[in-house]
Amino acid sequence: MNGEPTHGPTDETDPETTSSEDTTTGSEAAPLSPTAAADTPGHRLTAGLTIGSRVVVRYRLAEGAEAAATDFVGELVARNDDFLIVDTKTERVKLIRADVVAAKDVPPPASRPGPPHERVSADDLEKLMAKGWQALDRGGIGDWVLRASDGFTGRANSALVVGDPSLPVDKAIDFVEKWYAERDRPPIFQVHGERGFAVDGIPTAAALLERGYAVGGGRDDWQRVLVMTGPSAAVPPLTEESVPVTADAELKLDWLMSYAEQRTVVPGATEAVLTGSDGQLFLSVTDPESKRIIALARMAIHPGWAGIFGLWVHPDHRRKGLATTIVSAIAMVARENNMPAIYLQVSADNADGVAFWERLGFGVHHEYTYLARPTA
User: Fold this and answer.
1) pLDDT reading at 14 higher than 70
2) Average pLDDT, stretch 202-213?
3) So what's the pLDDT on residue 5?
4) Which of 141, 153, 203, 214 is the most exposed place for a label (fewest CB within 10 A)?
C-alpha cells in the first residue's frame, strides 16, 4: 500500500482519542488495519510525532512494488491507534501506522536560498513561532491561528494572519471578531511582512484600518516587532570564565517569580503559555550570595530551530555579560541537538536590544505589527 488519499474534513481523526472505527474516507468507513491497535515498531516510531507539525514518514510499500518503501512529507493532521493522516503538497494521505518504517518531525521547508535561519518563509516561521508560544485557548479559520490567553502577551492573544483564511477578508474578520467577543476579549490581529512593509499594503490590514483599527493599537512597542534569526554556530561559546547556567525542563516557582519582575503575569494563563510548547527549557543564572535568580530566558525547542523568549537580567546585575552567557548556553544546547537556527522577537523601538542581538550574529528576518482598536 502506498498511502490512501483522503479528502473530506471527517477524515481528520482526533489526535489521540478517536478510534479507528470513526475514521472515514469520503462517506464510507475505512476498513481496520489487520494490525489495528498493535504495538508495532511503526506505532512506536509515530508516537512522538507532533500533530500540526511537518513530518517525514517512510512507508512500507506492498510486496512486488518497484521499491520497498517511499517517503511522505507534509503536515501531520491527525493520528489514532491505527492511522496517520498527512497533508502532502499534492494530496491528503492516510497511512497505516504498522507499516511505517521511519518517522520524525522536520523543520519548515526551504523557500529561498541561504543558511537555515534565512531560507524559511515568513509565513512558515510565524507558524513555527506560534508553536513555541502556545496560547491557552486556540482556534482557527483556514490558515489563520486564533489565540487567547486571558490577556497575557500580544502573541498569545491575537489572530495570526497567515496564509488563506478560507473566506473573503471581510467575512474572515467578522468571524475573528465574533470568536474574541465570545471570550470577552478585544480582537487583535498580528500582520507581518518584509522589513519596512507598508501596513496598508496588506489586504487584511487595509480592511482593518477601514474598520477603525490602529497600527499598534495605541502601544508603541506593538507598532513594529522585529523577528530576528541567526545561526546557533555563530553565537560565542561558553568559556571557563562563564558563570554557571541552570537549565530546567520544568517551570519552577523561583523562575516564575523572577520572570514576574519584568512583566505582568496572569495566574494560570502565564504558566500554561510558558509550558505549552512541545518542548522548552527554562534557563537561569543565580546570584551566589543572595541565591536569587538574576538572569533568565526561556528556550522553545523545535525540529531544526530554537526560540528565545523573555531574556531578562536584573537591573542590579546588567553589563556583566549575563545575557550573552544565557544566549551562549541556549546556542550550545541548540548545536548539540541539531538545531542550526535560532529565532527571537524584539520591539523595533528597543534600540539597545536590537544592537545586542546584532552583535551576536542575528539579523532581521521579517517584522510584524499588531492591529487593534485603540480602546483594546
Assistant:
1) no
2) 97
3) 41
4) 203
Measured in degrees and rounded to the nearest 5, phi and psi for residue 296 equal -160, 165
Q: Which residues lie below 8 Å from residue 280, measured CB to CB, with a gap of 6+? A: 132, 249, 274, 298, 299, 300, 301
What is the number of domains present in the chain? Answer: 3
Average pLDDT over residues 114-139: 94
| Structural domain span for residue 248 | 230-360
**C-alpha cell at position 90:** 499534492
- The band of 375, judged by pLDDT with boundaries at 50, 70 and 90, is confident
* H or E element, residue 160: strand 159-160
b (16+ CB within 10 A) / e for 10-25: ebbbeeeebebeebbb
330 within domain boundaries: yes
pLDDT tens for each residue of 27-85: 333 333 444 446 898 898 888 888 878 889 999 988 878 888 899 998 898 899 999 99
Are 55 and 145 in a shared domain?
no
In a 10 Å sphere around its CB, with 0-12 CB exposed, 13-18 middle and 19+ buried, how is residue 320 labelled? Answer: middle
Q: How confident is the model at residue 376 (pLDDT cuts 50, 70, 90)?
A: low
- Among residues 224, 245, 270, the one where a domain terminates is 224
Please check whether residues 41 and 88 belong to one and the same domain: yes
| Residue 282 maps to a domain | yes
Asked if the structure places residue 319 within a domain, the reply is yes
* Residues 295, 329 share a domain: yes
More confident residue, 31 or 161: 161
Residues shown for the chain: 376
- Residues 130, 216 within the same domain: yes
- The alpha carbon torsion through 35, 36, 37, 42 (nearest 10 deg) reads 50
The closest of 266, 49, 280 to 137, measured between CA atoms, is 266
Find the CATH number of the domain harbouring 85: 2.30.30.520
Measured between alpha carbons, how far is 335 from 340 in angstroms, rounded to an integer? 6
Q: Is the pTM for the entire model greater than 0.70?
A: yes
Q: Report how far residue 162's alpha carbon sits from residue 202's, in angstroms, rounded to the nearest whole number.
A: 11
